[in-house]
């Protein structure tokens, strides 16, 4: 089976009592193996009385689709030769999903339950699940049934949330997975390795697992611990790659939310679930997704030595195609999007109770076009990084200004929303999304123009005559 380009992400999950505003959050940087991988963003409509078979362009997985499907936001690849890769969205029942966080099982468990070549893979997961679920837990259960029937082609971590619960599901082998409900007062950071730890098989309220997983582990003598049942220990890996590519990202996310706790960035024992030292804001989540070991010697853009700056893989990368934060509280459902390198981009809020998105998000040309949101933010990132020290403060001011504006705009829209009927509200929020896009586009284009104008004075191809000559 061919290797797809979507295989490196960082995820954050936050329970409602751990967040500043009482919302649940799931968030992820969708990273690829290449820097230029355009993404679209639009609304998939409801479907009724459908008779259709889904066939994956990636691995020919073939599934008969349900006749009825919910409306949902979708973030597919612009080039779909390899598959849809819808990745993340919120459906009309205000259930959010992000798929996937690529994870990898060890050779011992894969020997006895290998991956299934034409099983469920990342390219298909959101498409096959999000339109058909009415809660976060139902998402885990629905995907679990697909894995039981078709098998899994990959190791994947999948995020689900509704206004009350946040779930994280790790699919490790061809047919085995576990899922954990993130405690309301806790958060989790995941980074391309199996992270879920102890499973309580007497607690089906907070854990879900594949049928026969206990018997599978016992039959093949796969549990390395003298006591307990730790999914990470049994199914996960513990390699040099983990210690340089994966665990440092978890370390840094926890460092920002639990700054008083000293941990080793290469530790194999970083906890998956943590209680934060203070309530987590939307901006805190953005800060993590934008981060590159800021204010440490490991920052690739910092002043450390070359060995330290290249020691660990950062969270925000040039190959982050789509950074998203899915925010749910009561009837509020907002999907925050950042294209380009998240470190330099603004997160744009979208009310997901909408029937369309702006053309600048729906249509993505193959080559640079500043009318396209994807290309606009890719260009901004390229310009900022080209003269990072000269541009970074201006860029931070731009981000903060838009973040403040977005909070005020959302507050204003939500104050007006109760005036509209259920039927009118979708049209109203669709129109507000357009206003938000227009403001962000104008602000970003102005910022880009200012940087380019300033940058003309920074060329190395300049010459000043020495008066002594």
Automatic annotation (TrEMBL):
Tell me which domain of life the UniProt entry assigns to the organism this sequence originates from. Answer: Bacteria
Keywords from the named record:
Dipeptidase, Hydrolase, Protease
Catalytic reactions on record = an L-aminoacyl-L-amino acid + H2O = 2 an L-alpha-amino acid
Q: Does the keyword Repeat apply?
A: no
Is DNA-binding given among the entry's keywords?
A: no
Question: Pfam families of this UniProt entry?
Answer: Peptidase_C69 (PF03577)
A GO molecular function term, named singly, is: dipeptidase activity
According to its UniProt entry, one GO biological process term is: proteolysis
UniProt-listed Enzyme Commission number(s): 3.4.-.-
State the family named in the UniProt similarity comment for this chain. Answer: Belongs to the peptidase C69 family.
The protein's name is Dipeptidase
Q: What taxonomic classification does the UniProt entry list for its organism?
A: Bacteria, Bacillati, Bacillota, Bacilli, Lactobacillales
């Amino acid at each position: 089976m061919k290797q797809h380009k979507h295989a490196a992400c960082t995820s954050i999950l936050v329970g409602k009592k751990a967040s500043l505003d009482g919302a649940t959050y799931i968030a992820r940087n969708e990273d690829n193996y290449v820097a230029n991988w355009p993404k679209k963003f639009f609304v998939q409509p409801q479907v009724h009385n459908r008779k259709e078979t889904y066939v994956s362009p990636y691995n020919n997985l073939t599934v008969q689709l349900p006749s009825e499907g919910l409306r949902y936001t979708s973030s597919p690849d612009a080039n779909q030769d390899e598959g849809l890769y819808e990745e993340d969205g919120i459906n009309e029942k205000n259930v959010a999903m992000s798929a996937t966080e690529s994870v990898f099982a060890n050779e011992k468990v894969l020997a006895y339950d290998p991956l299934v070549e034409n099983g469920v893979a990342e390219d298909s997961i959101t498409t096959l699940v999000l339109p058909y679920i009415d809660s976060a837990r139902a998402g885990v259960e629905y995907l679990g049934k697909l894995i039981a029937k078709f098998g899994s082609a990959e190791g994947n971590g999948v995020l689900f949330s509704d206004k009350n619960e946040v779930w994280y599901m790790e699919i490790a082998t061809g047919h085995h997975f576990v899922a954990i409900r993130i405690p309301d007062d806790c958060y989790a950071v995941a980074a391309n390795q199996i992270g879920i730890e102890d499973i309580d098989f007497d607690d089906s309220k907070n854990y879900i697992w594949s049928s026969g997983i206990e018997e599978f582990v016992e039959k093949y003598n796969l549990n390395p611990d003298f006591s307990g049942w730790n999914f990470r220990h049994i199914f996960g890996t513990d390699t040099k790659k983990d210690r340089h590519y994966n665990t440092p990202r978890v370390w840094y996310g926890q460092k920002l939310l639990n700054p008083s706790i000293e941990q080793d960035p290469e530790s194999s024992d970083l906890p998956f679930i943590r209680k934060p030292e203070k309530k987590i804001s939307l901006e805190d989540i953005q800060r993590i997704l934008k981060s590159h070991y800021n204010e440490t010697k490991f920052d690739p853009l910092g002043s450390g030595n070359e060995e330290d700056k290249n020691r660990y893989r950062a969270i925000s990368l040039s190959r982050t195609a789509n950074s998203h934060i899915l925010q749910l509280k009561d009837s509020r459902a907002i999907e925050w999007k950042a294209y380009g390198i998240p470190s330099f981009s603004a997160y744009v809020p979208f009310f997901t109770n909408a029937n369309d998105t702006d053309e600048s998000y729906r249509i993505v040309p193959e080559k640079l076009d500043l009318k396209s949101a994807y290309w606009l933010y890719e260009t901004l990132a390229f310009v900022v990084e080209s003269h990072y020290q000269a541009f970074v403060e201006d860029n931070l001011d731009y981000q903060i200004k838009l973040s403040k504006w977005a909070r005020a705009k959302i507050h204003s829209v939500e104050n007006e929303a109760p005036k509209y009927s259920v039927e009118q509200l979708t049209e109203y929020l669709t129109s507000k999304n357009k206003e938000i896009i227009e403001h962000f586009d104008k602000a970003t284009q102005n910022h880009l123009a200012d940087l380019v104008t300033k940058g003309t004075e920074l060329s190395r191809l300049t010459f000043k005559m020495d008066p002594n000559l």
